[in-house]
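Rotation project, supervised by the postdoc (A.L.). Task for the rotation student: set up a whole-complex structure prediction and record inputs and outputs verbatim in this book. Inputs entered:
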Amino acid sequence: MTRSVRWVPLALLLGACGDDSNAPSDAGALTDVASDVAAETDAGADAAACDLGDPPTTPTFTGAVRIAGGDAGAVIPTPSGGDPEGRWVADGATLWFPEVARGQLDESGSELSGVAWGDFSAGRYRLLSDLVIRVNTVMAGPVPRPSRLGGRGAFTVQGERLTLTPECTTMSGTLGMGAMAGPSGFAFSRDAADRARLFVYLGAAPLQAALIFDLRRVQ
Amino acid sequence: MRNDFLRAAIVLAASTTLGCSGDGAAPTDPGSGMSYPLEIARIIEGNCVSCHAATPRYGAPMSLARWDDTRRPAASAPARQVWNLMGERVHDPVRPMPPARLSEADLATFDRWIAAGAPGCTGSDCGSMTGPDAVESPADRLPCAPSERRAFLAHGPTVADRYTVPGAAGNLNRCFAFQSPFRGAQQATAFAARVDNARVLHHLILFSTASRPAAGEVFDCDGNMPRDARFIAGWAPGNQGTVLPSDVGLELPGEGEWFILQTHYWNNTLDAADDASGIEMCTTDAPRPHTAAVHWLGTLNIAIPPRSTGYETEGWCTPAATEPIHVLGSTAHMHRNGTALRSEVHRGGSAARMDTLTDVTDYSFDAQVSRPSDLVIMPGDRLRTVCRYDNVSSATVFFGERTEDEMCFNFVLAWPAGALANAAGQSTRRCIDRAR
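Outputs recorded:
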């Protein structure tokens, strides 16, 4: 799940909002969207062949968009590792942008909503996330984006790092205003017997963002 | 001169009546000997054959010039005849034909004809459609000599070649980049389209950009447009071009900057087509007192729920202007789900004192007409643009470039250039506030 999966390309929003030339242009902005769409089409073919099996009952949650730094000195949480074994549903999530995004995005007016679940069992995983992420950009105002990503395959754990080796993936949605960016890594925190967090990293430092799911064990 | 402007379209203007008197269809079909009944001929000539000509234009899939054309298999549903679909499209809530919709009286007449099986006519009361089949180029009417014009035209490997649209290309967005021949002082005083191959040309947009496009000088527009692209001019069927008031010129890219001509073709035949359409303009080396630009209002905050009617989204604009902004015209732009767009000017930021900049209550993607205006926006005013949609699909529709995605933009031609932009959009001529 590292090469072929292009998760929410919100790294793109860092790039997309990184200078004055990134506001939407009709056909211009549009082109970025179009490139996302092309990728989406490819993933669509994956989707037909990637059966994830029965999903658990998943609650719809809303989550926040945060930016590191600022007056409060907010920092992106770090994973602590632990055993991911179990079936999990997300009841919250936070999308963290690095400090460099400050001035380009507003936490206020930004949010995400949707559903997500994961199943880790005997070295095998299934994951699905179906979100709408709305980022309030300085240049172009609020931009909502759908993002649906799933996959199944094998996984290994080393410390806090989670390595996913996908057998298939599914992805759809026009995902953003810029170059597609896939997850650059995954990590896990087992915070309690029935609580955990899944970390999905996007892009590379200093532009790396993190999408952190709050998970509740259901089985 | 203002009257000239009032008659002119600005961008992507379309008219369903262009060429309606200019179709060369024979009054009767040599195959059946039937023609349209008189009243139906009048309706079709006045609303349809500008595109559905004997040789279809602007991507229209078939001719409606003769009654026999209505008995052929429909391109989109070969098991049905064209007249069956005609009866449906005139009532289509999302993609009506004609795009500006028939009047109630004509619709009633048309419905009766369809209900009767769309019969042909052989008597003395039959209608006929006459006139030349030629397609005029709006550029032919530019108020400057051809030798004084600048042209940005689709082309092949060299600018002397015509661009070849492959057979069965379907939708094709092809971009052509040109280094700006201007050095910074020039302005455009008028611009209009050169329509070369009307059979495949769907619409044109001319942009400017600060540097040579990374994708080269002839490229696929999709995914390759620079993000700093500024809208200069556009054309869609019906647009007659723009002649600016005598004291106003349109800003142009200067030395080192580039033009990009974006051409949207639609070729649903197996035959390739050569084309050299584009935008031509009159310019002046002696700048006029006022420099205008096309500015953008609206929002990308679009997420239209499935099976929704009358869904609205809004975008705010807080101009950073310190002087009055003189509006010349505006053009609403949405996609197929759009039904209405309104831009309000809240004087001094107050909804209690409101003027209307644009109010399109019967929006059609296929008839994006410009609306002239002489409104003046004052420092301290805020603008609110509201877009309304119907989404008959089972999926949420978001902002995007594809026809099935949506947009909510109001292109506003105004001077001084850049004044109708917020603090973040000064260089791009955009005024789309972040949420507060």
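Student's summary: Residues 1-47, 174-181 of chain A have pLDDT under 50 and may be disordered.
Supervisor addendum: The first strand of chain A starts at residue 61 and ends at 67.
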